[in-house]
Structure formats: C-alpha cells, structure tokens
Amino acid sequence: STLKKFLEYFGVNNSEVKADVVIGDNQQGIKTVAGNPNAIGYVSIGAAEYSMQEGISIKLLALDGVEATSEAVANGSFPLLRQLTLVTKGNPTGLAKQFITFVQGEENYDIVRLQKFVPPKN
Fold it and tell me: The whole model's pTM is what?
C-alpha cells in the first residue's frame, strides 16, 4: 500500500503517526495540503503535477536530493514510488486480458498520462 511504502521509507511505525486529517484520494489530499500551510501529505506525482499546472499552490519535495517529477519516477531515480497494480479474480481472459494488454502498450502511454499516472520507461 502507499501508506506502507511511506512508513518504510521514513522508518516510521504506523502507531507513531497522528494524522489530523485522513484523506481518501489524491484530489482531497492536494486540496487539504493547499489549504493548510502546516500540512504535509503524499499523493500521486501525476495528480500533484497536474494540480500545480492548474495553479494550485503546493510544493513537491525532493527526497535524497532527487526532485519529485514524473520523469524521476519513470526512470526510477526518485527513491519513493509505488507501482500501479491491476487485479483480477483469477487469470484474466477476454476483455479483461485485452484491457491489460492495451494499458501496458507503449503506444497507449499518452492515455495513461491523461489519467495522471506515470508509465514506465522501457
């Protein structure tokens, strides 16, 4: 999970985290951080970059000297990332299998980016 990755990276136990607000999705997290100068949160890099392009006042923090950018996530240099996982009940067949093949195709990465995800570098 995203929380697990965050806790592992920073070496924090879940019991040590005292959240003032628990967010449900990226947009809620971005809105919460933008509205509180003392807030810190973690959201999808794609959603954060898009929000910044739309004029929302948030700052992406560098980790280990690496700027937080989609490019750094895609090339693996950003030290904290979580892979998107597609799940099915059983082995995918039919339309589910076709969809998985479709979203993994490099020719469709523009669609992946439109959904605020970072496709892998091949």
Answer: 0.76
